[in-house]
Amino acid sequence: MSTTLTPTQKKIDEAIYKVPDFPKPGILFYDITSIFTQPQAFALVMQEMGRLYQNQSIDGVIAIESRGFLLAAPFALERQIPLVLARKKGKLPRKTTACSYSLEYGEATLEIHIEDLTPGKRWLIVDDLIATGGTLEAVCKMVEAHKASVAGIFSIVGLPFLNYEQKIGRYSPQTLINYDSE
Ligand code: AMP
Q: What is the pTM of this model?
């Protein structure tokens, strides 16, 4: 837990359900889905996200399956910019581009419809939580490989003790609340 929380962070912290030993012993799971059952907390998160990027030029949002969808969709609608979904392998029907990254056990792959990833545009990449940063790094590299650029990274929660700055610090990750240890 962060030592000093702002009043806003305190409200966000209170809205996040923490589940010990999920999905396996020793992991504290930050279940941000509890935010969506509390409309005031959801509104607060969207307000804070909007504030972070209000003066920034962003051409579109890439949302990471699945909880990233829930944050990226209202943001893109409010800003009237395109929303592109990064989905788990095998879900998208049209021609895709893919990126793979390491999980604790094995590998995972995310795919984007290639025609949606417009070259030359500035994309905000959105997920619910940054742990090691491996997922977001893979998506950022895929964006760059298609001659587009990363305008930033947004997540509600950051776990900086897992050193994600080393992987994705250059993409200016923004979080609303950080936790020091699990
Ligand atoms: P990483 O690629 O290591 O940054 O992992 C980030 C992804 O894993 C996000 O999509 C999170 O939803 C999920 N994740 C990793 N650790 C946790 C955790 N302690 N609580 C909730 N979700 C997590």
A: 0.97
Q: 7-178, which class in CATH?
A: alpha beta
Handedness of CA 163, 166, 167, 171 (dihedral sign): positive
Atom of ligand 1 nearest to the CA of 127: 10
What does the mean pLDDT of the chain come to?
Answer: 96
The neighbour count for residue 20, using CB atoms within 10 Å, is 10
Q: What are the tens digits of pLDDT across the range 128-143?
A: 999 999 999 999 999 9
> 128 in ligand 1 pocket by Cβ < 6 Å?
yes
Average pLDDT on 19-27 reads 94
pLDDT number for residue 1:
58
d(Cα 158, Cα 180) in Å, to the nearest integer?
9
- Ligand 1 and 27: CB distance under 6 A: yes
Ligand 1 pocket test target in 64, 135, 154 with most atoms within 8 Å of CB: 135
State the pLDDT at residue 3: 67
Between the CA of 180 and the centroid of ligand 1 the distance, in Å, is 15
